Amino acid sequence: MAESSEKPSPFSRDALCQALRETLEGVFATMLAKPVSLSTVVDGTPATVHAGSIVANVALRGDQEGIVSLVCHPGAARTLAASLLMADEPSALDEVEVLDAIGECANMVAGGLKTRVLDPLGAWALGTPACALQRTADVVQHGGMLSCDLDGDILSVGLTWGAAKVTL
Amino acid sequence: MKKMLIVDDSATMRKIIMRVLRQAEIPVSDILEAGNGKEGLQRLVADPDIAMVLSDINMPEMNGIDFLKAIRTRRDKTSLPVVMITTEGGEAMLQTAMDSGANGYVTKPFTPDSIRSALEGLVG
Q1: Which of A47, A97, B39, B118 could form a disulfide linkage to A93, CB 3.0–4.6 angstroms apart?
Q2: Would B124 be classed as within a structural domain?
Q3: What's the pLDDT score for residue B120?
Q4: Domain range summary for chain A, segments of one domain joined by +
Q5: Which domain holds residue B58?
Q6: With an 8 Å Cβ cutoff, is A91 touching chain B?
Q7: Which of A85, A97, A119 lies nearest to residue B90, judging by beta carbons?
Q8: ipTM of the prediction greater than 0.90, yes or no
Q9: Which residues from A are below 8 Å from B59, CB to CB?
Q10: For the residues B24-30, what does the mean pLDDT come to?
Q11: CB contact B36 to A (< 8 Å)
């Protein structure tokens, strides 16, 4: 079961993992024409957010509150943005374009999670994406995330529910 | 050929929608953009030739449902085709959009086929 220090999560860990996998695969296959290979980081394994990474958060609000986080290593962020925008050269994109693209990707992932898992449980609202460039030294996040390799760089998706990070 | 307005707070998504419209071979003469419902309304007032609207739902300032309702209160826009393009895939939001006067509903991520299907009969 998913973990939380407050209320228990309203859905099962398996349902959550499955929904996130399906959503990511759908977004990549449809919008990027790119197959994606997802791996689940072992429960409780710390995940490092490197300086220069893009972090996009989208809030989900209902009986409880959650945040879907998309964390892209610098190379993965540019690869993903360039694929979404069909840009020939990822390095030609400016920071605003990359941030916006990753935010929209996080938005689609959070929307897919809401549709697949939360909507059947009641009324939930989806927030607008908040994106930021990780400018400071590396930060270690505790808890598991779904990760995938994007042309040699890592993209991860995590979920925080209530006060605790859900272990995937 | 029609003039179309795309309303989405993401510039990336507006570009993607424009690209997919071309891929789907939708006959559009000109495409205008707005970043939220409030800007969208200003565009519609300023340009009476806009003949179709594609709008996101989750946006700051004015969301897509309030934008749609505002359009439908205008006597000259009651029959303006409005298609919602959103990450909200649930039945409840779909029903809210259709009850508010939407002519179509597309869930992100989308394909050229899903866009073409939603716009079928609305463009010409």
Answers
A1: A97
A2: no
A3: 87
A4: 13-166
A5: 3-119
A6: no
A7: A119
A8: no
A9: 128
A10: 89
A11: no
- Report the C-alpha gap between B55 and B23 in whole angstroms: 19
A84 part of contact set with chain B, CB < 8 Å = yes
CA B40 remoteness from chain centre = 10
Chain A residues within 8 A of B63 when measuring between CB atoms: none
Grouped pLDDT means (10 residues each) for chain A, 168 residues: 51 75 85 67 60 90 86 88 86 92 94 88 88 77 68 80 61
Any idea what the CATH number is for the domain that residue B107 is in?
3.40.50.2300
Chain B touched by A97 (CB under 8 Å): yes
pTM over 0.90: no
Total domains in the fold of chain B:
1
Give a yes or no: residue B88 inside a domain: yes
Fold of the CATH domain A13-166 = Chemotaxis protein chec (3.40.1550)
CA distance, residue A35 to nearest chain B CA (Å):
14
Chain A: residue whose CA lies nearest to B94: A115
Kindly report the three-state secondary structure assignment for every residue of chain B.
Answer: CEEEEEECCCHHHHHHHHHHHHHCCCCEEEEEEECCHHHHHHHHHHCCCEEEEEECCCCCCCCHHHHHHHHHCCHHHCCCCEEEEECCCCHHHHHHHHHCCCCEEEECCCCHHHHHHHHCCCCC
Q: What is the percentage of chain B residues whose pLDDT exceeds 90?
A: 76
Taking the CA of residue B86 and the nearest CA in chain A, the distance in Å comes to 8
